[in-house]
Specification:
The structure is a homodimer. With about 500 residues, the first copy, chain A, is mainly alpha-helical. The first copy, chain A, has a domain of about 90 residues. The first copy, chain A, is built from 20 helices and three strands. The radius of gyration of chain A is 23 Å and the shape is globular. In chain A, helix 9 runs parallel beside helix 10 and helix 11 packs across helix 16. In chain A, strand 2 and strand 3 form a beta hairpin. A three-stranded mixed β-sheet of chain A has the order 1-3-2.
Amino acid sequence: MEKNISEIEKEFLEYVKKMGAYNEALGLIYWDLRTGAPREGHVQRSEVIGVLQSEVFKMSVSDEMEAYIEKLSGNVPGSVTNKVLEECKKNFERNRKIPESLFREYVVLQARAESIWEEAKKASDFEMFRPYLEKLVAIQKQFIEYWGYTGNPYNSLLDMYEPGITVEVLDDVFAKLRDKIVPLVSEIAKSGKKPETGFLFHHFPKESQREFSLEALKQIGYNFNAGRLDETVHPFATGLNPGDVRVTTNYDENDFRTAVFGTIHEGGHALYEQNISKELIGTPLCSGTSMGIHESQSLFYENFVGRSLGFWKNNLDLLKKYADGQFDGISIEDFYRAINESKPSYIRIEADELTYPLHIIIRYEIEKGLFNNEIEVKELPEVWNRKYEQYLGIRPRNDAEGVLQDVHWSGGSFGYFPSYALGYMYAAQFMNTLKKEMPEYARLLETGEYLPIKEWFTKHVHFFGKMKKPLEILVDATGEGLNPDYLIEYLYEKYSGVYCLNID
Amino acid sequence: MEKNISEIEKEFLEYVKKMGAYNEALGLIYWDLRTGAPREGHVQRSEVIGVLQSEVFKMSVSDEMEAYIEKLSGNVPGSVTNKVLEECKKNFERNRKIPESLFREYVVLQARAESIWEEAKKASDFEMFRPYLEKLVAIQKQFIEYWGYTGNPYNSLLDMYEPGITVEVLDDVFAKLRDKIVPLVSEIAKSGKKPETGFLFHHFPKESQREFSLEALKQIGYNFNAGRLDETVHPFATGLNPGDVRVTTNYDENDFRTAVFGTIHEGGHALYEQNISKELIGTPLCSGTSMGIHESQSLFYENFVGRSLGFWKNNLDLLKKYADGQFDGISIEDFYRAINESKPSYIRIEADELTYPLHIIIRYEIEKGLFNNEIEVKELPEVWNRKYEQYLGIRPRNDAEGVLQDVHWSGGSFGYFPSYALGYMYAAQFMNTLKKEMPEYARLLETGEYLPIKEWFTKHVHFFGKMKKPLEILVDATGEGLNPDYLIEYLYEKYSGVYCLNID
């Protein structure tokens, strides 16, 4: 007897629930590996990861999955099931279009390239890494042909991380950003002004940094019954399910900013995952909708809250309480200027708010060039250094602080970098609307009442998980499409304040 | 084209490796749940457990598994594959013989019974729990009929936890134990002697207890590159793989013995799992061979090492260093007598070394009676209390401190209790051989050189995983079958020393 549609739908939802369960187990395994799993167990744990991952992959491209998509698409009433189908179909098509032998070659190459990249970075020698990167780019170009694309081939990669965002959009917004940020950066350099920052770098015991970080997480509305804070080397947040969203941080005892701003950043990611609608649990929709929207949440809290004057008006005394006297006698204004010093630097992840977008734009321009056959891999060190000189006024002295600094390309992650800058623009655009809808916004920052802010984001962003695409979220929340002006305005206002510049 | 045997063998080993991977993921999930997983994520985490467990179960009884067993049994050369087949066949037959509907009924009942037991224990009301226990026993009796048995029906249950051990064996050894321990217990009571114990119960900060516990683990040879110590409510050790064997403990700040002896106990389990042959990783043979042999390792370290005079000659000063002065002026002899006080008590898990076996024997006699239709569930409180009075000279005042104290029956674990006493007898028998083969044993205890002891156990016990059955291990290591005399001798010697009795 033929099964009816609602029986098939039920089976399909069980099927994706199983994939979700494997992914949740994988999430816990990764968290554990990065927060203290005993070293000698790692090799066998990798086997476990391999088994679970390949099971999820097989399920995503199976004939069963194909049959569910065919039978159910357009035939079920529920909006959740339809979105789940859409999501599964996208993955199915992406993964099925690649010939298995090419995919296997790629997976082996990825693993090898990452360890070669590590060595090359240590030796600061791009030539070591070059042949692997060439092969990675070549295979990605083949993937793009299999996947197909509209407009620019690079769009096919962007679509993976930020559906709806294309070269056509990015060329425009990144040009605007670049043309406004570059002069501001050079204006600051010309002013010769430099905030006093020496007091930042005193010894601040790890345990006390942790105490303050916990307080900061609590303030922004992180739910400790649905999460925990642990220590790791490379900080991250991970949403295993909305009731279990973990934050990690690392501590530099001679620079408290690493842990404090790092924790608030990851806390922003965590607020997103903690507040997704419970209705989506067990489906692939139960996570942030895109890298960019995710980053909008972390950057909003890290920069717009954590690096704001208001936040520190409310928290500097608390920080002083935990510190060993390093901030005694430091005024709130001096503290604010110190933590917001802007100066061109080589390393993206150490960049300040103002110069950060330029790091991203450089990578975007290079990736676009690569996938449009306008730049060859062998030219990368030279192109990289030239762009740093042009946009930031500094020229990396070697490959380690230049083209080899980031892990992304070694793992084949092309098209990912733009999300960081997109997130920043989304965040500024959200803030603009938030301030309009919440006239007491500035006061809330100073009094530490951050919950209404979290609630606004939950209502407009968090709740939907992957039920809405990134631009849908943005337009529904702010009433317009991506507009870089809000970020530009914010940066001009903030940095002319920090550096007492007269710019209009 | 037909696959040849070695291809099928390879496939089969991949198949069991996959089951092992799911089990390892489950192990990590359980560890995490019991050491700090955020509360609000538990419900969804249970779903993940359900998915993984049902997958492992399905794989263990699948037609594929059946085909592997049929095609490979007796047709492969390797001793490992043959043992894996044997293990899989045993599970397959156990699980396939039960009708699915009965098994489902049982699983639902188990979950329900456990929460009812919790309530019943709180209310100290056996009648609340009785109907569930009756049903559990009734279904287990049906299982026994499906599984079949030799000799006594209760053997079918014993075989799950301690293959090779039967009612015929236990009746004999437990009678000997009981007939020797009961008079010794009453001798001690009659002597009227009671060691001074007041100094044990001072405030000992948790952090310091942890430091001492870590030192103790290190001394016995626990490898911290392949493990870690965490806090939990109900302590356990878990071997995810030999490179990742975790120990947990809990701290009572007014009784350091809970953490210290608990950690050493779990450390003994952990030494077993850390030292299984690497060759067995990824197979179902990579864990302790039975509950009883496992318990022999934990009890050996907890009692024969941790509660010995030698261990404290070497460690009392260290304990004094961590404690807040509570042991100042206490002699090693007084300390030793205090931690080895013996007195009849109601609660098994709080019992001392001497009375502990009686708690087990009572449960054994009751279980045997239940499954031989000589005792009815409704009679349990009365039977229980009568036996406590008869063997220990005390009568529980209510069900909570009597028949309802242990969780085991609520989960349907009948046949499990005897392992605890078996482990104790195995341990004493191992020690007897160890002392003969290592004449310096007593000196090693006093000087803290415990590694040769660990190495002896690794060579004779740990290394084999499930490659050998429990009695095979015992006979190969000690040259004889189970002999309760060694435990009896040990107890007489120890307790006539602690209580200065003149017994021969």
